[in-house]
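Consider the tokenized backbone below.
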């Protein structure tokens, strides 16, 4: 399985709240967020792990070059206007087969991820998106599904009977990268608009409930994540 991590964001809310470290280097239970994901993916048959960081994170880049001695990392250092463009920068490493992409600040239980990645690996569909019922986000992306958990829409506002939001973990095939090229060419931005285009292009995506997923957006989220992880 190919994996990818988007870690090129500014992390401005964390810095404004007094967190000195760039987001990928924020420690959860003593381990930087980015290192935690690399080791987790390595335990789940990582053929490669492609990572993008911005040019203002020398300490993150240094850590990645150290970890590259032990793990199959592809490292891209580039400033991008959105997470969708960050994925585009990683796309050359992801073609051929399936890949699992996540943002660097997602915190989840490994046992839940194990079930998710197994489902995605065995799915005949174009993508398996991790979803959660835990809504603790200022601007969540809501997921609408049919009775078989096929995704029918991604919306900024909750549908009549909201149940799931995006968990920030995306399992996709190379077919999705063709749609990504269209999104970039059309001048679109934001990952959610790319996901909408996946539906518009007729890709068959399913939602996989993955239990509680926490995003590290604010300083208070660090303590929440550590408490969550310690309960595993």
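A designed sequence for it:
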């Amino acid at each position: 399985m190919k994996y990818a991590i988007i870690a090129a964001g500014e992390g401005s809310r964390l810095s404004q709240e007094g967190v000195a470290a760039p987001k990928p280097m924020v420690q959860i239970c003593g381990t930087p967020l980015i290192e935690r994901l690399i080791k987790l993916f390595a335990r789940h048959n990582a053929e490669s792990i492609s990572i993008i960081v911005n040019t203002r994170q020398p300490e993150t880049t240094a850590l990645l070059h150290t970890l590259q001695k032990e793990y199959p990392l592809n490292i891209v250092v580039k400033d991008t206007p959105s997470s969708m463009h960050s994925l585009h920068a990683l796309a050359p490493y992801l073609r051929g087969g399936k890949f699992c992409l996540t943002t660097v600040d997602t915190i989840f239980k490994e046992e839940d991820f194990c079930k998710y990645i197994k489902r995605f690996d065995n799915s005949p569909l174009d993508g398996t998106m991790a979803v959660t019922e835990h809504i603790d986000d200022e601007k969540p992306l809501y997921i609408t599904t049919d009775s078989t958990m096929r995704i029918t829409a991604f919306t900024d506002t909750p549908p009549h009977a909201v149940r799931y939001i995006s968990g920030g973990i995306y399992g996709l095939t190379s077919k999705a990268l063709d749609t990504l090229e269209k999104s970039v060419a059309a001048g679109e931005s934001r990952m959610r608009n790319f996901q909408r285009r996946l539906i518009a292009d007729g890709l068959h995506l399913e939602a996989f409930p993955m239990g509680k997923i926490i995003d590290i957006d604010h300083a208070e989220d660090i303590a929440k994540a550590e408490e969550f992880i310690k309960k595993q």
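Residues 113 and 163 are 20 Å apart (CA to CA).
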